Amino acid sequence: MKSIIIATAVTFCIPAFAQDTRHVTEPKIPSSCIVLKANLQAANNALAEADETRLDTQRIQAALDACGAGKSVELACNGERNAFLSGPIELREGVTLLIDKGVTLYASRNPRDFETSPGTCGISGPESRPCKPLIPVINVQNAAIMGDGAIDGRGDRGVLGKSYTWWQQSRAAEPTNARYSAPRLIIANHADGFILYRIRLHNSPNFHVAVNNTNGFTAWGVHLLTPSVRGTDARNTDGIDPGNSENITITKSWIDNGDDNIAIKANVHHMSVLDNHFYSGHGMSMGSEARDESDILVDTLTLDHTSSGIRIKSNVQRGGTVRNITYRNICMKDVAVPISISPFYNGQTTDGIQDLGMKGDRTPDYKDINFENVVSLTPGIAQVAGLNANHLTEITLNGVEIRGIQPDQVRAQFAKITLGPKGANFTFTGNGVTTMPLKAPSKMSFSCENKFVPSGLIGSNARNR
Question: Does residue 17 lie within any of the structural domains?
Answer without folding.
Answer: no
